[in-house]
Amino acid sequence: MSGARPGDPNETARRAGAQSAGRSSFSGISAVCSAAVRLTGADGAAVAVLGGNSQARELVYATDAIAQQVDELQFVVGEGPCVEAFRSDQRQIWPDLTSTDALRRWPAFTGEVLALGVRAVFAFPVPGVRKSVGVLELYRGLPGGLGGVERDSGDACAVAIGRALRADWDRRVDALGGVDEVVDAVVAQGGIDGVDDEFSRAVVFNAVGMVAVQLAVPTDQGLARLRAYCYAEGRAISDVAADIVARRLSLRDQRDSGEG
Fold it and tell me: What b/e sequence results for 101-118 when a residue is b if at least 16 CB atoms lie within 10 Å of its CB, and e otherwise?
């Protein structure tokens, strides 16, 4: 079995890079979000970075509570314009979420987001070196599309956010081997220096690990089960995660029957 030798300087550098990959200042992103709101006529904005499979994500910044809730809803149900923008690497312009197309495409997301008073959502991929590393999400409380200049402004703000991320991550890319690996490391650590605690999902990822152990399933299934529980109970995933980490709540009784 191959492996790094004790004291191998390359392995030491790799580990040091992994430890620092989650520590980014993300300076200037709040200003870009404010500019995006102003230039597109949106009511609020959020930025999320996502892991390679879009299952794991970290909210970097949100201009207001509704923007934060729109992002968390997509995190919980695993669908929505932000998720699709990341997977397709194409902007998603949805001027009226009551449309038949939106309701059919994202039944869980649309029902919940309309209850928040949100009628339009626009999602712009944040470009990385090879593909998107996150999404700039905008919402409006009233239906309405984006004009050409507004779309271009959204794209430009997403590019500016991507530059801000890359400027701070360049040295980490060298240590970990690529931008995707850096994003995954940030998400896996669940904490980013310079991001307000109210946005970090560190407690969620800690809870996912605990749920995986409780249910004897892989971590990706642990996240899916945690999401399903939150959706069924109508509770915020951050609140449920906090209860699990504090051992006030266990999902062990939801372990599939017949498992050892």
Answer: ebeeebeebbebbeeeeb
pLDDT digits (tens, 9 = 90+) for 187-222: 555 444 444 445 556 677 677 778 888 888 877 778
More confident residue, 181 or 165: 165
Domain boundaries, the chain: 25-189, 202-254
Residues in a beta bridge with 62: 46
- What is the fold, at CATH topology level, of the domain defined by 25-189? Beta-Lactamase (3.30.450)
Contact between 80 and 121 under an 8 Å Cβ cutoff? The reply is yes
pTM of the model: 0.66
- Residue 214 near residue 252, CB atoms below 8 Å: yes
Which stretches of the chain are assigned E, i.e. beta strand? 44-50, 57-62, 92-94, 120-127, 132-140
Q: How many CB atoms lie within 10 A of CB 99?
A: 13
